[in-house]
Amino acid sequence: MSAHRQRPIDLALQGGGAHGAFTWGVLDRLLDEERLDITAISGTSAGAMNAVVLAHGLAKGGRHEAKQALLRFWTRVSQASAWSQGLAGLFWDWAVPGSPLAWTLEWMARTWSPYQLNPLDLNPLRDILAQEVDFEFLRAHCGPRVFVSATHVQSGRLREFRHEELTVDAVMASACLPLLFKAVEIEGEAYWDGGYVANPSLLPLITESPCSDLVLVQINPACRPEVPTTARDILDRLNEITFNSSLLKELRSIALLQQLLAAEGLPAGVGPGSLFQQVARLRLHRIDATEDMAQLGAASKLNAAWPMIQRLHAIGRDTADAWLQQHGAHIGRKSTLDLTECL
Questions:
Q1: Residue 74: partners with Cβ closer than 8 Å, 6 or more residues away
Q2: Is the four-CA dihedral 125, 126, 132, 138 of positive or negative sign?
Q3: Residue range 204-227, pLDDT digits in tens
Q4: Residue 200 Cα distances to 41, 82, 97, angstroms
Q5: Which of 55, 199, 248, 288 is the most buried (most CB within 10 A)?
Q6: What predicted TM-score, i.e. pTM, was given to this entire model?
């Protein structure tokens, strides 16, 4: 980047299982840019895990420690996923149409819940997070601030855990896939994966961060050139649409409000720091790799084998590098994401 001044940015990190290693690659490259100052992060599911590991590393020892923390986390995820890699392998086989295992797994998914299949609620990610992130330390250090999204099971509403509320349970709630794990209970309330209602949530970054540049790291492909026709391709596209729908609605709301404010101006009596003013000055950016990620099916989100993690990390780093070369100079000056596409 050619600028000589610090450029604050907020990050919105989408979830997507093992595909979160793509986001790791993006973050790894962004951390090389010393002109970029990460002030706040919103994350869901795997995005929430990346968010707390990144923020904890920055608070502990700056950029170098953050890069090392993300490397340790994803290395341990892969190493500890021997049992889940077996599960991932099953899902890869499931992708073979008509295979006997496909019918068996579909029958099991329709018949038994994780309360029966996984009564002890075993999840190695919890132990890894608890060991890698000192949540008490993280809550006490608000640079950058982190927001984590989860879905309240009974009401279906969004629950945003703010920085001061962050715990290992909050992050695990954000990443709780209801067909694999029991709902995470926090203060007597049950929560599932936040991707169903906010993937990720942009509003806390707009309302609670003074920064005007918001960089969205999107995992799930926004568009596909062809209409899926096979059963597996249809299910994959439904998965992408489901986990992008809340984000698209939020982007559309921002686009409409910015359009209205540009035409009508700020409402009378609106002061500094108001929601209207924050939205009016918001500059949005997006880092994604639609073409590369579209080649991976939804089942690969369960594949935490190290070769897959390395591949995703490399795609993320290369994508972020290309984005910085093309758009890095625009940070602090103008949006690079065309919101009119959302209208």
A1: 21, 24, 309, 313
A2: positive
A3: 999 999 999 999 999 998 888 889
A4: 10, 28, 32
A5: 199
A6: 0.89
